[in-house]
């Protein structure tokens, strides 16, 4: 009798043990499932972030540096501050404001009313004739074949872009009777030669610098370099004042 009672008690406890084991296994597996869900969501968010990055065109990235507050619009103050931060100087910065915001901003607006604010989403509307064609018309995306064409005629494919290369580009890519486009091309390239001379002491621009200029990664580097250069000049001036 005792053996039968003991066997019945063991049979009643067995389902409880199975239920406890099942609940413990489900609870132990839940963190892994939640971690899997978290990792999948993080991977999907990172993928979407990469997708958003590629949605901007090279021309937009070229101009984003001058959008100082990141609102998608470039005011006259933004243009002047951005130009000054890379070392263009007061005169060239003021002329850039007049040309970019005074003459070109209206083309980027969705309204017919005059404006001096450049809208980055429509920056491709500021493209003009007689340009290099590195930015694709009506989209602003980078055309690598046209970029290679800039260096055609040099002694080497990766040779520096010089004033002679610039003159060859103007003659080759200019349109008939397009005086406005020709002037605009000069006003785009000559400040770059000035910056290269002011920062690095030469008018020969490397291919890497040209590529960085077109994709917009050049301007943050110039800003850091110019800030460091000004700091060194101030330190040297302070040392001279102390010696006096």
Give structural notes.
- By secondary structure, the protein is mostly helical.
- The chain has helices at residues 2-55, 58-64, 76-85, 89-104, 144-149, 163-173, 179-200, 207-215, 218-243, and strands spanning 73-74, 118-119.
- Among the domains are: 56-126, Recoverin, domain 1 (Orthogonal Bundle), CATH 1.10.238; 143-216.
- It contains nine helices and two strands, in the order H-H-E-H-H-E-H-H-H-H-H.
- It has a two-stranded antiparallel sheet with strand order 1-2.
Topology:
Layout: H1 2-55, H2 58-64, E1 73-74, H3 76-85, H4 89-104, E2 118-119, H5 144-149, H6 163-173, H7 179-200, H8 207-215, H9 218-243
Antiparallel strand pairs: 1-2
Helix pairs in contact: 3-4
Task: Write a compact overview of the structure shown.
The protein has 244 residues and is mainly alpha-helical. It contains nine helices and two strands. Residues 1-53 have low confidence and may be disordered.
For the termini, the CA-CA separation is: 114 Å
Largest sheet entry? 2 strands, antiparallel
- In N-to-C order, the SSE pattern is HHEHHEHHHHH
Record the strand order, biggest sheet.
1-2
Shape: globular
Count of individual helical segments: 9
- Structural classification: mainly alpha
Could you tell me the strand content as a percent range? under 5%
Rounded mean pLDDT is 79
Tell me the number of strands: 2
Radius of gyration: 31 Å
Estimate the helix proportion, in percent.
Answer: 55-70%
Extract low-pLDDT stretches: 1-53
GO molecular function: calcium ion binding; monooxygenase activity
Keywords: Membrane, Transmembrane, Transmembrane helix
Transmembrane segments: 83-107, 175-197
Pfam family, one: Caleosin
């Amino acid at each position: 009798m005792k053996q039968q009672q003991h066997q019945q008690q063991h049979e009643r406890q067995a389902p409880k043990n199975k239920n406890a084991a099942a609940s413990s296994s489900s609870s132990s597996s839940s963190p892994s499932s939640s971690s899997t869900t978290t990792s999948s969501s993080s991977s999907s968010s990172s993928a979407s972030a990469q997708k958003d990055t590629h949605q901007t065109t090279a021309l937009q990235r070229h101009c984003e540096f001058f959008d100082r507050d990141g609102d998608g619009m470039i005011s006259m103050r933004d243009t002047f501050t951005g130009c000054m931060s890379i070392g263009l100087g007061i005169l060239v910065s003021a002329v850039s404001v007049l040309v970019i915001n005074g003459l070109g901003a209206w083309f980027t607006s969705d309204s017919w009313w005059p404006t001096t604010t450049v809208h980055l989403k429509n920056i491709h509307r500021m493209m003009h004739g007689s340009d290099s064609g590195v930015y694709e018309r009506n989209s602003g995306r980078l055309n690598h074949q046209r970029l290679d064409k800039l260096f055609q005629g040099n002694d080497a494919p990766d040779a520096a872009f010089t004033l002679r290369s610039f003159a060859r580009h103007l003659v080759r890519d200019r349109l008939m009777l397009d005086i406005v486009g020709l002037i605009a091309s000069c006003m785009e390239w000559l400040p770059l030669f000035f910056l290269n001379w002011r920062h690095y002491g030469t008018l020969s621009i490397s291919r890497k610098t040209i590529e960085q200029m077109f994709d917009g990664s050049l301007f943050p580097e110039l800003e850091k370099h110019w800030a460091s250069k000004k700091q060194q000049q101030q330190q040297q001036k302070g040392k001279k004042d102390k010696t006096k």
